[in-house]
# Entry
Amino acid sequence: MPASPTRADCSARDAADPLRDLPARFVPGEAGTLYFDANSVGAMPLAARANLARIEGEWQRLRRRGWSESDWLAAPARLGAKLAPILGAGADEVIVCDTTSLNLFKTLAAAVALRPGRHTIVSEAATFPTDLYVAQGLARFRGGVTLRLLQEGEPIEAAIDGDTIALYLSQVDYRSARRLDIHALTRAAHDKGALAIWDLSHGAGAVPGDLDAAGVDLAVGCGYKYLCGGPGAPAWIFAARRLHDAIVPALAGWMGHADTFAFPLDYAPAPGMARFLVGTPAVIANAAMEAACDIWASVDPHAVFAKHAALGDLLIALVDEGAAGPGVGVASPRDAAQRGGFVALRHEGGAALVAALGEAGIVSSFRPPDSIRFGLSALTHRYVEIFDAATRLGEIVASGRWRDPKYRKGKSI
Amino acid sequence: MPASPTRADCSARDAADPLRDLPARFVPGEAGTLYFDANSVGAMPLAARANLARIEGEWQRLRRRGWSESDWLAAPARLGAKLAPILGAGADEVIVCDTTSLNLFKTLAAAVALRPGRHTIVSEAATFPTDLYVAQGLARFRGGVTLRLLQEGEPIEAAIDGDTIALYLSQVDYRSARRLDIHALTRAAHDKGALAIWDLSHGAGAVPGDLDAAGVDLAVGCGYKYLCGGPGAPAWIFAARRLHDAIVPALAGWMGHADTFAFPLDYAPAPGMARFLVGTPAVIANAAMEAACDIWASVDPHAVFAKHAALGDLLIALVDEGAAGPGVGVASPRDAAQRGGFVALRHEGGAALVAALGEAGIVSSFRPPDSIRFGLSALTHRYVEIFDAATRLGEIVASGRWRDPKYRKGKSI
# Structure
């Protein structure tokens, strides 16, 4: 076992960090508060302010002329191209629009149409709930489609067969941060002629997406977590280039039309990913999101993933050494290659401990039944912050003050 | 024929206007520019700046705690309730979310499920194109649903029969501003057991929606036109209270779940309109939109509709008197009760005239084949602006400079 990391060790790592200048590209949070909520709302890029101010000015001055004289309509594709490298995708394979849930519907509807004669969507009970609701809603409306949910421990590969439309999974378990192997599972889906659809919400911006390398067919992800696009930011959707021409969207709208401003009566899909657009782009939200996309486009994805793994490894090492206090355990995989964007800890205090932590200036989040989640960001976190958080957590746990009844409730998202 | 209105007449009307203080609640546009594009991007409420600044602060300071400590999650219902009076709806019948196109899909999917055994959606070729694309996409994906499009002049009532799922119409023709009779047509749909679905995008905030009074079943509308919610603002969706419990959304997601944060595996619709929510609310976009909703909640809808009609009547009177120059005709209904949010003029210059007008500081828009649209806003327009626009238009038409080849192109939305 290596010696326990000291605060000085962490400072030294920060000084040597090739990404050490990135935190300065974000607005600092509340003084004294440590934010471990990149899994929920990532930090605010400094440039988001300027971008929002620019859009306010265009709204005021240009009004409708913004559609033609500014870059409002081009934003979805432009933002998608900027995100593509961190997702392991081609610039023409990602577009930013709508919400994760709506984009999931688009992927499933596309898969159903691409695999006529097949009837089953294979997923896990561990998949994020909204993903399951989307599939249930689609199955109810469409008919002829069944959602098969695997329980923990059931082998996924064995559930895929000739009736499988798509394997439909969250890359990262939203409670434990367990990360599935996108490469192996996508191959397993393809081996049976099924499509592979991945929700990368709890991975994108933290761990490799590898969408092209893994041969993924369709994927989606959240814009407001690790990607730092702002609360409720537009989501993204990916489709492998080889599929573009074959997909005629079920959610068809004017912004996905091949010739929107000719106003023909019949729908014809736009070339490429633009066909996944439906309604008018969210101009203001896209402006905030673009500040984040510009940062993503400027970083080396490998450096981001390496630092992200190291941050998690450090937190786990500190917990193992007892820095986080007695009774605190690690609920996430210890192997960074099997872990997503956060580290889940476990302690009898559960949600009450998260509430007590919050009062002490450590923002984390709880997920039933027992996950205390620390969302990590390679863009904004310094190693010393991990050290300080573990130490502060240790003090709170040792103090026992999380047992105060006032900490017993709390809503989380 | 009454005497031609003078500029002094218009000033007098402004001085007596019960809504005369409303323009001061909006950010002034470019000096010297007259904006007639409320049919595309409405003016920016002053409070939008403060609202956006507040959300920037919450993003920076609260991060994920905004979900529980701020009002982010409550925004869709809160904004809907504020819009309801101008739509003629109950506060619990409107929710703000997603885009017009996506909300159209929700209404159609609900209608299909509410009318099993029926197969036809009746609409018009004059319906806004995205509405048609949404229906086409849904019909293709679902199967067993046919879109019947009526051509101009075909009587709508006669097309509704026992196989009609829904009458699915734009309240206002996006080229001519012709307004359909929501009351009569909704009754005609109900007489045959069909539902009535209305897209109020080119009417809401300008002319009566009368959703409850007319017995409308489902409706949607755009947030960024007359409603002034900002470019690409979230849209709204309405469902009559009597239908809420019977609708299980096809676009199902966690924000429409009855118990979102319990994370159950199975979808169960939230009570009331919340079931129409799908993904995470667009927090930043909602903040801008709320500034407009607050204005709508503060005005007397009847005063707004009366002024809107008067603005259009004034423009038409000025055109008829020749103030807008020779060869300029009125393409919209002369009866305000049959007209939507804009007045369409007609002139041989068409799109080139719109471009020349733009250069002269009059923002209007063109729709093929020949509609020169002047979007009017009872919240922001003064009568003298109508007078000045007509006069300036008259000078440009008379000058013939719109014939310059440089005006021959231009994209519009």
